[in-house]
Amino acid sequence: MSSPDPNYPPPSGGDPQGQPGYGGQPGYGSQPPQGYGAQPQGYGAQPPQGYGAQPQGYGAQPQSYGAQPQGYGSAGGYPAAPPGYGAPAGGGSMPFPVAVQTVLTKYADFTGRARRSEFWWFFLFGILVSVVAGIIDQLIGFPALQIIVGLGLLVPNLAVGARRLHDTGRSGWWQLLTLIPLVGIIVLIVWWATDGDRNPNRWGPSPKYQGAQY
């Protein structure tokens, strides 16, 4: 009769010898091995840089989109009105210094046309010079300067008066109406204050509407 096996009975726990963890899975109840069941790297994360994004400039309006072309509807590049159409070509009344210089330059010129600002600015200039001359004559006690000024301004006054009448379509000889007391000068003042013809007449183009600077 053989002696009993020293390894018998089996160890406590009921698991056969040599089978560790019998009846249970290795690591049962613990987290799965590293990487097991985990999502691949980057899965569910944001797409790579630029993925699904609009290309650079996509959907953006091009430069100056919807803007009017340069010069469109503005003064630069917009078709200008022909000379004589709309506003005066001279861009306003003639300045005082320019009017005086123009009349003195055309000292005895009885041809051509003169606009209202040229005539009336020189008329004012004549009054101012006469006042200054009168003050000086009072100081010296003799009206010498007033006589010189009166004679010096007589010819340019007649010349610009004739050109002003030409601008309204009338002859410069109408200035002889000044020989008629009161009535003659009133009629001339009305004509001198009348705007000139827009179109050229027998004395030339309009200095206001035909593209002249003044």
UniProtKB/TrEMBL annotation:
Chain intervals with Low complexity compositional bias: 28-72
Spans traversing the lipid bilayer: 119-136, 142-160, 172-193
Recorded superkingdom: Bacteria
Location of region: Disordered: 1-72
Record's keyword terms, sorted: Membrane, Transmembrane, Transmembrane helix
Cellular component annotations (GO), alphabetically ordered: plasma membrane
Positions with biased composition (Pro residues): 1-13
Pfam families: DUF805 (PF05656)
Keyword Cytoplasm belongs to the record: no
Protein name: Uncharacterized membrane protein YhaH, DUF805 family
The organism of origin for this protein: Trujillonella endophytica
